Amino acid sequence: MYIHQVAAYLPAHIVTNEHFTRLNGLSHDWIIERTGIRERRKAAVGENTNTMAIEATQRALAAAPEFIHGLDLIVGATYTPYDTIFTVAHAVQHALDVADIPVVSISSACSSLLNAIEIVEGYFAMGKASRAVVVVSEHNTAYNNEEDTIAGHLWGDGAATLLISKERLAETDLRMVDLITGGAATVGKANTAVTLKPVERGLVMPHGRDVFTHACQHMARVTSQLLERNQLGVEDVTYLIPHQANLRITRNVLESLGLPTERAVSNIQDLGNTGCAGAAIALADTREQLTPGNKVVITVFGGGYSYGAMLLER
Amino acid sequence: MYIHQVAAYLPAHIVTNEHFTRLNGLSHDWIIERTGIRERRKAAVGENTNTMAIEATQRALAAAPEFIHGLDLIVGATYTPYDTIFTVAHAVQHALDVADIPVVSISSACSSLLNAIEIVEGYFAMGKASRAVVVVSEHNTAYNNEEDTIAGHLWGDGAATLLISKERLAETDLRMVDLITGGAATVGKANTAVTLKPVERGLVMPHGRDVFTHACQHMARVTSQLLERNQLGVEDVTYLIPHQANLRITRNVLESLGLPTERAVSNIQDLGNTGCAGAAIALADTREQLTPGNKVVITVFGGGYSYGAMLLER
User: Fold this and answer.
1) Beta-ketoacyl-[acyl-carrier-protein] synthase III N-terminal domain location, by residue (chains A, B) (predicted)?
2) Do A16 and A159 lie in a common domain?
3) How far apart are the CA of B85 and the nearest CA of chain A, in angstroms?
4) What residues contact residue A157 under an 8 Å CB cut-off, 6+ apart?
5) Based on the domain organization, do A132 and A236 belong to the same domain?
6) Which of A34, B107, B166, B290 gets the most CB atoms within 10 Å of its CB?
7) Residue A110 annotated among the catalytic residues of the structure
8) pLDDT per residue of chain B (314 residues) written in tens, 0 to 9
9) Candidates B4, B17, B110, B216; catalytic one
10) Catalytic residue among A214, A243, A246, A267
11) Are residues A272 and A157 part of one domain?
């Protein structure tokens, strides 16, 4: 299978660290040192997970207008749903007006991007689909309490859409070489470390250290496993795109793998943690720099916990 | 693929129609006439989507304790999440303590059961799994406003777990012969008719008539399509298990298909609309009555909209 196109949507409004200094007394330098985050985006009134997903999808389709002919699957992903019934995937189906195709939304928190792509891989393997939209969208600010001094400053909003086809459609398509996902709800404080209980309305991270430790370990481990089973070394990786949770996590993963800083793609500085959209947004920004033979590894870690790694080749 | 075991969990507390007579002035007869619902279950304090899913899964595994060896996939489904990060599937992984297997939760509202099984079908087709837990769990009362005179009396809580394997494990296993799912977000008032926006905390159904019409049409149509492509007639269907939304919808679907009342399985009378768990709970209750050669069709319709049909053979 091939990633034919990737596009992102980011809300226009920028929230700087100074906002959290005024609100909670957290200094710009303190936030930078602990997270790498300089600013993040916030959805406007009237924007939500569904509208951002539609925007990202329309951008992807504007760059590849012929893709919609034969579109036969939509998989949405979010842990910050606007509507769990008219889900993010249904909102995209509604906007695209493509009837009678499988449509489903998922969550494995910040690692959903790879679960969504693996579900597409399954539909392709069954022969039940051959051209899919995967859309990842997070409206963290709808559930985040920005007065939370522990994690309120971490989150940003954004969305991205991948157009994925069974057959190669263009020379610039990225071939999906291999993909691993795994739930890790059995380790550490997976059940309490980071949670979003909608009835209590809260996105909270009471055990950030546990998340940090397991994110570092799991992303490094699954990336090594992915490379090993494809007989590749880290030197073969043109770009590593880790889940955009925290710049210190990214640096730790790079160090464990023995990769230099410049090989990692990071948007956390400008976007904060955009959940399952973060790595896809980074892929959208990276794609055009790739040349034939280049390899990209996307590795993710989500609350709950979950992890994954995917190998792409231009 | 084969359904090896099915088990349900229902909270003990029963809410009768008299509760809604006292609260909203809706009479028992009026509710019965319009919905068929006599009573429904309500989760206790401390129970939620995740705890009910774990209970149902433990019951399924108690009936088939060897199934856990080789378990390699968990798919959860709910539109009434307790936690969108430590999702219902992650809670089950945590409880079962099975590490490093794909774990994901989904929603296509009341039709998620069939989307979840189709995702399992995909993992089996890829060779990435061969033994799966599918767990459907709804905590409608956490999101429902019972003072809503339009739809507050419809909803109930409950969960069910299916143990699904690629190969037949026992003579009593149900073979999954065929499965169709589809999003129908493009028809009618799909985007507004029934919604659950967690931030607004509401499960509401402002356009019940639109839901009714499309539920009847889609469930009848997809069931006909499923039977036709398997060269079966309605006379070959031992039991039809429709989504348990409303007894009038069930009767309408039966009439469209030309099936007598006794061929439909209904639990709506005792459980109300238990969302994506309803048809699975009905399957748990029906399974032991089946004899070799019997065929069961499960057909679903969900808000947003979505539909599906699955053919099982004993």
Assistant:
1) 106-172
2) yes
3) 5
4) A10, A11, A40, A41, A42, A43, A47, A52, A138, A139, A140, A141, A274
5) no
6) B107
7) yes
8) 999 999 999 999 999 999 999 999 999 999 999 999 999 999 999 999 999 999 999 999 999 999 999 999 999 999 999 999 999 999 999 999 999 999 999 999 999 999 999 999 999 999 999 999 999 999 999 999 999 999 999 999 999 999 999 999 999 999 999 999 999 999 999 999 999 999 987 999 999 999 999 999 999 999 999 999 999 999 999 999 999 999 999 999 999 999 999 999 999 999 999 999 999 999 999 999 999 999 999 999 999 999 999 999 99
9) B110
10) A243
11) no
Last residue within a domain, chosen from A165, A185, A215: A165
Question: Which residues does chain B have within 8 Å of residue A118's beta carbon, measured at their own beta carbons?
Answer: 102, 123, 128
Beta bridge partners of B42: B13
Searching chain A, which residue's CA lies closest to the CA of residue B119? A119
> Based on the domain organization, do B33 and B106 belong to the same domain?
yes
ipTM, two decimals, is: 0.98
Write the DSSP assignment of B8-56 as a string of letters. EE--SEEEEHHHHHHHH---HHHHHHHH--SEEEEPPTT--HHHHHHHH
Residues A41 and A75 in one domain: yes
Task: Collect all residues of chain B within an 8 Å Cβ-Cβ radius of residue A87.
Answer: 79, 107-109, 304
CATH number at residue A233: 3.40.47.10
Residues 6+ apart with CB under 8 A from A209: none
Same domain, A240 and A286: yes
Count up the domains in chain B and report the number.
Answer: 2
Based on the fold, state whether residues B125 and B263 are members of the same structural domain: no
Among the candidates A136, A165, A194, a domain finishes at: A165
Among A125, A186, A198, select the one facing B93 at the smallest CB separation: A186
For A113, B47, B87, B195, the CA distances from A194, given in Å and listed in that order, are: 18, 20, 11, 26
Query: E-strand spans in A10-55?
Result: 13-16, 39-42
Range of the domain at B101: 2-165
Q: Which of A74, A125, A182 lies nearest to residue B122, judging by beta carbons?
A: A125
